[in-house]
Amino acid sequence: MTPANTPLTHFLCIPLATExxxxxxxxxxQLFKVKASTLIKWDDDRMPESIxxxxxxxxxxxxxxxxxxxxxxxxxxRLLQDLDTEILLADxxxxxxxxxxxxxxxxxxxxxxxxxxxxxxxxxSPTHTSILYAKPIDETDRLFSFCKRVREKFVEAGFVxxxxxxxxxxxxxxxxxxxxxxxxxxxxDHGDDSxxxxxxxxxxxxxxxxxxxxxxxxxxxxxNIQLERLTICKMGARKLTNSSGTxxxxxxxxxxxxxxxxxxxxxxxxxxxxx
Length: 275
Fold this sequence. Notes:
This protein is of the alpha+beta class. It has 5 helices and 13 strands. The strands form 4 sheets. It has a 5-stranded antiparallel β-sheet with strand order 2-1-9-12-13, with helices on one face. Strands 5-4-3-8 form a 4-stranded antiparallel β-sheet, covered by helices on one side. The longest helix has 18 residues, at 22-39.
């Protein structure tokens, strides 16, 4: 786990809410909100909708960062820019094995990197959890190896915080760290995942997820999402409102992005800088 006294400023991730995937993710989240509002017990009140993550925030985290020293942000951006993602994908393809241990050589293993999001999983015990997430499903078995290699490069360079627990790729769907303060008068715990709220060492609220998990057993949350970019984002999502002031979405500020689409046309670097 990340040391509790480490001030986190950024995180390395793969965004999931691509233009092509946004519609199905939005539909899945809206349906989840409706189900969760009746299936998750929240004392005498309705479950606060803020604990369900907005569509634009959905991502797979590769690691968290504490980039507070001069030059650290620039160094992390340079490392991202210099990554040869095609070589890393090729390495992941060679590492991927079929169930009998032989190397995969089918056409899928050479296709763009993509995932589906599987059924909901609790981060802690089903009866006492603060986080629900969807597991990424990669039929080519390249995703985990690719992400692990990228993470290792950032850890070795000192930009991603080294953790004792293994990499757990997951798309957070619900996190009670985002509950409003007025909803925090119930039992709380620290959990295993601090989320990416600004100053994210807030305490979390545990709840019984048994019923909602049963409802989603065997359900695919989203299918065939083509992964397009590696990004370095700032902690703390920015709220987006419409003209009447209603919250419509939240987004993480992207400091830098690097294409991971394995094609000559998409192989160029894309680096956005805010430092």
